[in-house]
Amino acid sequence: MTTIVERLSSSLGHDLVLTGTAIVEDDAHDESLTAAWHAPDVVVVPESAAQVADVVRIARELRAPLTARGSGTGLCGACVPRRGGILLSFRRMSSILEIDTENQVAVVQPGVTLQQLDEETARHGLIYPVFPGESSASLGGNVATNAGGMRAIKYGVTRNQVLGLQAVLGTGEVIRTGGKFVKATTGYDLTQLIIGSEGTLAIVTEAILKLYPRTPHAATIMAPFRTLQEVTAAVPKIVSSGLAPMIVEYIDQMTMRAITAASGLDLGVPDTIEEAAQAYLVLVLEELDRTRLDENVERMGSLINDLGSLDVYVLPPHAASSLIQARERAFFTAKAAGANEIIDTVVPRAQIPAFLSRVFEIAMQTQSPIFGCGHVGDGNVHLSVFQPDPEKLHDTLSSVFEAGVAMGGAISGEHGIGTEKRSYFLELEDPAKLALMRRIKAAFDPDGILNPGVLLDPDGAVAGRN
Amino acid sequence: MTTIVERLSSSLGHDLVLTGTAIVEDDAHDESLTAAWHAPDVVVVPESAAQVADVVRIARELRAPLTARGSGTGLCGACVPRRGGILLSFRRMSSILEIDTENQVAVVQPGVTLQQLDEETARHGLIYPVFPGESSASLGGNVATNAGGMRAIKYGVTRNQVLGLQAVLGTGEVIRTGGKFVKATTGYDLTQLIIGSEGTLAIVTEAILKLYPRTPHAATIMAPFRTLQEVTAAVPKIVSSGLAPMIVEYIDQMTMRAITAASGLDLGVPDTIEEAAQAYLVLVLEELDRTRLDENVERMGSLINDLGSLDVYVLPPHAASSLIQARERAFFTAKAAGANEIIDTVVPRAQIPAFLSRVFEIAMQTQSPIFGCGHVGDGNVHLSVFQPDPEKLHDTLSSVFEAGVAMGGAISGEHGIGTEKRSYFLELEDPAKLALMRRIKAAFDPDGILNPGVLLDPDGAVAGRN
Fold this sequence. Notes:
The structure is a homodimer.
Chain A: H1 2-12, E1 17-18, E2 42-44, H2 49-62, E3 66-69, E4 86-89, E5 96-100, E6 105-108, H3 114-122, E7 126-127, H4 139-145, H5 152-155, E8 162-169, E9 174-178, H6 190-194, E10 202-210, E11 212-213, E12 217-225, H7 228-239, E13 247-252, H8 253-263, H9 271-276, E14 279-287, H10 290-306, E15 313-315, H11 317-328, H12 330-336, E16 341-343, H13 352-365, E17 370-375, E18 380-385, H14 390-406, H15 422-428, H16 431-444
Parallel strand pairs in A: 2-4, 3-4
Antiparallel strand pairs in A: 1-2, 5-6, 6-10, 7-11, 8-9, 8-10, 12-14, 12-15, 13-14, 13-17, 16-18, 17-18
Helix pairs in contact in A: 1-2, 7-13, 8-11, 13-14
């Protein structure tokens, strides 16, 4: 370790290389419920891509594992440092380099937070439409995990917004991919390959992001349904209505009670309906002008009514924003309630009813209470699993993931694999694809120094490390 | 060659392996203006992914180059067979396997044409929104080149519509990527990597495509401007208007004259305006209902007027569709007029005025007339270059591509690199990225049998071929 610290200090200067008591507790963990905390041995806080490249070259030479970290709001352990490795924190690379209104793009450093970017784009009447529910999250982390969130049904996820990157490969080479243009067929799409690779292929040092005009008017509709099946069965019809909702969420009864209680929110639903409602649908519509919005709300309301809802509420602005915020905090509400794991399996939208039926069978069989809410318009359900016994928890998750994959889905819609879902991923994925992914990994990172132990590597070891 | 034919015939049966006079002329070329025709030595017409895998394994064993082909409407030589190689034609794999209305996806074989898919989706009130201007193009070819077209400004390109693939790697392994879901963070995005790889990484045998509700009402606006600079300068404001146009094209004076003459179209523009108009802006708006459409047309019309147009025409339906069709045929009009090359450089939207200024300087310097039209909303300009001398043509193209790349763009927005733009690509691309792409290529296709000579390989040779 001494050698690593010396080499880093002599290259970057002592100020940018932290050890011992200079390391803050926050750098030891992400928000995952299961990943073990581990204080990093050394933290570097680079100020430029050239410095990141220096760090990569030193790590490569010394075969030291290198983990990049943004705000640490991830949910699968992907930015928790490896033992004996280097943690690279982007807290000093957190500038919005440019808001280019003519091309409708932002150019940001990886440490920029969603909150910071939202405040800046708002000044220009523009918006970066990815809202994964945690506005302190960094853009670098969002790129690494292909962050999603509630508005993905209309705008897509991070993958759909990133037009270009600057990134450092595991070789230490700095490349630029894509650009301020929306399409190209000029070689392999390296931008898309790096997005969602959880820090295992390259370290992102800059991103070009697509911005959109900020739509001025929005309305929130909440509809209680007798059963969860009715909610999920309604979704394909809502999506194909042409009314282009910005948010299509479901919240089950238990979760709704928990999040409204946690935020002291009274939505004004009569007791009789609240008792009968096993699940809620929450929709947000947006429009350029108020009249059209009102018309759309009217149309959507009658569609939902036809689909069997117990009632339809158009929430007043304050209640609406409180509900959306409470929904965004659902993860922390579940965590506070003692959930042992929170997962986000994605399945084809129309398979949600069958998937949730199977989930509840598994919950009964394994005696693990499972509650949820989620981006039902995207087929992405977020489930809180209550099962304190680690072995039983593993079996429960295994069965849920297996069911999702068997229905044509994937383990994670937006949280990622990290260290915490790796064993399930390696078990359920086609071995031919895993072998291909390992070859791709080697193409970017020949010595396996970038985030070993995340996603693919079975034992966290760096190749040839001694 | 005899060995190859024998091995293929014994594996697939004689009916699916064509040689000599059984090979049709169409299989010898694509629509590129410069690629040399070459009749294939052997054509295989597989009926299943398993048969494609057999062909790949035989090609690998015999180190024979393997080129996949859809409808052959490509523009850069990427599906022209290599000498001594195998041409794989998807004419017998042309079924729409499923229109899943609940999940709003289509599952297609690679030989399905856009026309065929459009007719089928229309029956369900849905649409596949990629219209690259040639409806006989196949979906397999569209995936290989990441096809774009006029509606990309609203819906995105092929890359944005493909949710999953079945594909055969250069190893002969058959994999499935993605699925009927809109997002995932579960391993590297192999779907996105294969899209646009021009048959060099894998052979696509099935694709899952995103469908959209078909919007019932549309209107076409045409606005003549005094200068091309005024048109291109107007574009960022139109894109950021929030009116979400489906098409934003520009057509220069020469091209407008050529395409209207070729299609016998009279748009009713008075002579005085036609003479003053150096360029036209063509917009299509669409909406759920007629009233909103009319309002949007009104708003857009006054915006365009404020931006300095000579006039604003809302075209009657027949003229509108004729103009869009004529624009779609612009490539063939230019070809008939004797253009020596047609290119489709992409630059950041706001850089189009500067880029086109530079293009006209190059045209003057090299005495090569250059006219154009294009997806100006996407920054993707299509230029017809008239220069019969091959060396001068090369220098002209080289200068244009260099200018585009220097302004933050890329050589091709949607046509691809193929064999015909490869030398420019290899010259202008960062060597570190080229080396990375070659390593990625090797991860998919260790022996280099998939479309050698396209995109990367400098001499078209298959590794270890004797």
